[in-house]
Specification:
Helices cover about 55% and strands about 5% of the residues. Strands 3, 4, 5 and 6 form a 4-stranded antiparallel sheet that branches. A hairpin with a 2-residue loop joins strand 4 and strand 5.
Length: about 575
């Protein structure tokens, strides 16, 4: 009887287990709905069931992929961890600096080389692209996009392949021709992946950016394509892609906040983005820095709302980033003024001869040069007064990103001050009074470059171009031979060969200028009549040579006059 009862119990238990096994539970819902034992509608980032019921949606867990046995041998390590269930931050507690998309256990790759190139980007390129800024865009925002969008994963793999390609160019080959073959294969693979990603992006390019998640993805796409075009040395293509993202942000801000107030463009963008959980501070800062460098390369653009006055500060800066933003506004005003000021350089009748006529947006109005210089002097004095304490404090932490960024900001400000306070404007002898500034800039730049080169992951490049521009200005403007040669030496050491400002080309151009000027050296210094002013240069498509358009001071009938010389072609 006991045996019969036991067998009956076993049969009932087996039947119950079979019936339970047939019912598969859905495990792709949010954490809150799973705890409440209700069906989740799986809407992201916050499900409607939690929102309608007044609960805080704790987000989604991606442990289902980790539980499945993958036949893909190239799945990244970390997918076999015991508890990969990490919820998204709660929607109501999000801040601008937090991200709302939690990466899955790991993206899937089609081949081993895709996985290797992705790891190159993740472990090496991402940290270098952040430059001297403490940003999470490249090592968090972009990597999370790779878990959501195939095109993002393909572009990241392409950038990783290019990064490895350039790393191999500086490494000794393991055998005859082996290094060159590997470099070529990685370069072709990068182009293939990028072409695939562009095809995927074209399918969604025509869609309207009606939602902020789509805007976020469009900005990430513009950032990645800017990076790739920069890696292959296409400056025009990179700047065009950067402008796409910047224009998207400007149009979106205008739609959300059409009021035309006195705020500068990026203050308005941040004010509007503060209401959105999709546009975090790191992504906005990345495009603001790109916009700054586009401004340095291309000047002020028509249709942009440029600052009509200089910023003012009345208390010490609370961070180096705040000081950096302040000087960014100063530079925007300077570039705007210099671009509209020379439109018509003729004296206004009855006015001081330093007054010029400028045009912008169809208007013609006078700009007193002396008044503009005085406003710049006031803004720069405020900057140095309130930046000095935080700069000195950063000296206590050498080698940190804060330390290096403080160096960079100080170099920018000193270079701008020495370049824009020249009197008289046509003379090249004004630089004598800035010799101490030049020497300090050389020390800061050397410290900056030495710190970058000492890091285990030596930077191949980042988007920063103001350091190279500042060194070029020192080498071309300073009259002290030792300081000039130090600037040229640092230009050749600066690891920025493929960015928007080619420091190797700049070094060769300024080296030719120095050699020509020193032919007329007197008592160890270059006299005014021997100085050469570079107006512009044009490089060959493959940078074999450059045409320089220069001028010199000549004496005609006892009067000193600046005269344009025939273009000079130099080899590169």
């Amino acid at each position: 009887m006991a045996t019969a009862g036991s067998s009956l119990v076993h049969r009932q238990r087996a039947k119950y287990q079979r019936s339970r096994a047939v019912k598969s539970r859905v495990r792709s819902g949010c954490v809150t709905c799973e705890i409440r034992h209700v069906k989740c509608d799986e809407k992201k980032p916050v499900c409607d069931r939690c929102a309608n019921a007044g609960y805080e949606c704790d987000g989604y867990c991606y442990n289902t992929l980790a539980r499945k046995s993958s036949s893909n041998p190239f799945q990244p390590a970390g997918t076999n961890i015991k508890n990969p269930r990490v919820p998204i931050p709660r929607a109501k507690s999000l801040t601008n600096s937090e991200l709302i998309v939690q990466p899955s256990a790991g993206p899937r790759f089609e081949s081993e080389i895709e996985h290797r190139c992705f790891l190159v980007f993740q472990d090496n390129a991402a940290s270098q692209l952040s430059g001297f800024y403490d940003s999470s865009v490249w090592d968090r925002v972009v990597l999370q996009a790779c878990h959501e969008e195939q095109w993002a994963r393909n572009v990241v793999v392409a950038i990783g392949a290019l990064h490895h390609h350039r790393t191999l160019s500086t490494s000794p080959a393991r055998g005859p021709g082996e290094g060159e073959r590997e470099r070529k294969s990685h370069y072709l693979f990068a182009l293939q992946q990028y072409g695939t990603a562009l095809g995927q992006l074209r399918t969604i390019a025509g869609q309207e950016l009606q939602s902020e998640p789509r805007l976020r993805h469009a900005l990430i796409a513009a950032l990645l394509t800017t990076c790739f075009e920069t890696y292959i040395g296409d400056q025009d293509g990179a700047i065009a892609q950067a402008k796409v993202g910047i224009d998207l942000l400007l149009r979106w801000t205008k739609q959300k906040d059409p009021a035309n107030d006195s705020l500068d463009e990026w203050s308005r963008i941040r004010r509007v983005a503060a209401r959105s959980p999709y546009l975090d501070e790191g992504l906005l800062s990345a495009f603001q820095r790109l916009d700054y460098h586009v401004l340095l390369c291309k000047g002020a653009e028509d249709g942009r709302c440029h600052p009509q006055s200089y910023p003012s500060a009345h208390q010490p800066f609370t961070s180096i980033l705040e000081a950096c933003d302040f000087w960014d506004l100063v530079m925007r005003r300077l570039v705007f003024f210099s671009s509209v000021g020379p439109v018509s350089q003729k004296p206004i009748p009855g006015k001081n001869e330093n007054t010029t006529i400028s045009r912008t947006k169809g208007e013609v109005y006078p700009h007193p040069m002396e008044a503009e210089q005085q406003r710049f002097k006031t803004a720069s004095e405020q900057f140095f007064r309130y930046f000095d304490p935080i700069f000195k404090d950063s000296r206590q932490r050498p080698g940190t990103k804060e330390y290096m960024l403080a160096n960079l900001v100080m170099i920018r400000a000193l270079n701008c001050r020495s370049n824009l306070t020249r009197k008289p404007p046509e003379s090249e002898m004004y630089t004598n009074v800035f010799l101490q500034d030049y020497m300090l800039m050389i020390d800061l730049a050397r410290d900056l470059i030495d710190n970058v080169n000492k890091t285990p992951k030596k930077a191949i490049f980042n988007f920063e171009i103001s350091l190279g521009i500042s060194l070029f200005h020192i080498a071309s403007a300073c009259r002290d031979p030792k300081v000039r040669r130090s600037a040229i030496s640092l230009l050749t050491q600066f690891p920025n060969p493929v960015a928007w400002y080619d420091t190797s080309v700049a070094a060769k151009i300024v080296q030719w200028i120095v050699q020509e000027e020193e032919k007329g050296m007197v008592n160890g210094h270059v006299p005014e009549i021997a100085r050469i002013k570079l107006h512009r240069h044009v490089t060959a498509p493959h940078k074999q040579w450059a045409n320089l358009y220069i001028s010199k001071i000549v004496w005609i009938d006892g009067n000193a006059t600046r005269e344009m010389l025939p273009p000079v072609q130099i080899p590169l």
